[in-house]
């Protein structure tokens, strides 16, 4: 977890906070070791998936004081193993049960608005134009991992990358109470719109659909 945070901060300082330099951006990104952490997590998730397929059971427990690394790996294994979690509805359920209902601290003090979208010249992931330096990087890291799986298996995902980008935008733009509070009680009492209700409307759901998606045969 600490290594991922340091890597994130280094990427922020060397790639994001500086004026964009297409000649050096890719090398600076490599120097942050951010992609190496992505590769390590994906390799671990695939090994855990093989254990799940062979035994039918899998318990992920890091033994550390935080659960977010476990949540990230658990989600990645489920995405790799079950087509349902590669749908818009399934991915939403996954985030709800593995992150929100476990009281993951999406709410951060003095959190400013942050906008995520693709920048020209970097192909290692869905680059961002503005990032916070000092927020927990593990969920952002998880979304990067999902993006990488999506790029390698385009026809197996019901949603396209714009769905993931909208997800990250919604963490910070304060439109939805879903990510402004850390408990379900506070979310309900706030009376603010739900992110998941928003994306489940037919119009928005259709807007995030991947035209290349091939549903699994029954």
Model description:
InterPro entries: Myotubularin, Myotubularin-like_Pase_dom, Prot-tyrosine_phosphatase-like. The chain is an all-alpha fold. It has one domain (2-207). The protein has helices at 2-16, 25-31, 34-55, 68-81, 88-100, 138-152, 161-172, 184-190, 195-199, 202-207. α3 (34-55) packs across α6 (138-152). It starts with a helix and ends in an 11-residue tail after the last helix. The model is unreliable at 110-131 (pLDDT under 50).
Brief write-up:
This protein is mainly α and 218 residues long. It has one domain. Helix content is 53%, strand content 0%.
Poorly predicted regions are 110-131
Please state the average pLDDT score: 78
- Beta-sheet strand percentage? under 5%
Count of separate structural domains: 1
The succession of helices and strands, N to C, reads HHHHHHHHHH
Major β-sheet, in short?
A: none
Pfam families: Myotub-related
Organism: Arcella intermedia
GO cellular component, one term: cytoplasm
GO biological process, one term: phosphatidylinositol dephosphorylation
């Amino acid at each position: 977890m600490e290594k991922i945070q340091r890597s994130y901060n280094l990427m922020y300082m060397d790639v994001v906070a500086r004026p964009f330099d297409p000649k050096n951006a890719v090398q600076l990104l490599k120097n942050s070791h951010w992609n190496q952490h992505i590769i390590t997590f994906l390799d671990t998730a695939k090994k855990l998936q093989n254990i799940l397929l062979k035994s039918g059971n899998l318990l992920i427990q890091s033994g550390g004081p935080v659960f977010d690394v476990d949540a990230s790996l658990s989600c990645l294994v489920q995405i790799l193993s079950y087509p349902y979690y590669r749908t818009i509805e399934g991915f939403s359920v996954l985030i709800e049960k593995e992150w929100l209902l476990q009281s993951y601290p999406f709410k951060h003090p003095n959190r400013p608005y942050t906008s995520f979208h693709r920048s020209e010249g970097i192909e290692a992931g869905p680059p961002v134009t503005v990032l916070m330096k000092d927020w927990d990087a593990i969920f952002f890291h998880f979304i990067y991992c999902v993006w990488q799986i999506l790029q390698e298996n385009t026809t197996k995902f019901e949603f396209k990358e714009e769905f993931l980008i909208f997800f990250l935008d919604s963490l910070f733009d304060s439109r939805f109470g879903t990510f402004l509070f850390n408990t379900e009680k506070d979310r309900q009492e706030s009376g603010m719109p739900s992110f998941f209700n928003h994306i489940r409307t037919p119009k928005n759901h259709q807007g995030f659909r991947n035209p290349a998606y091939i549903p699994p045969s029954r």
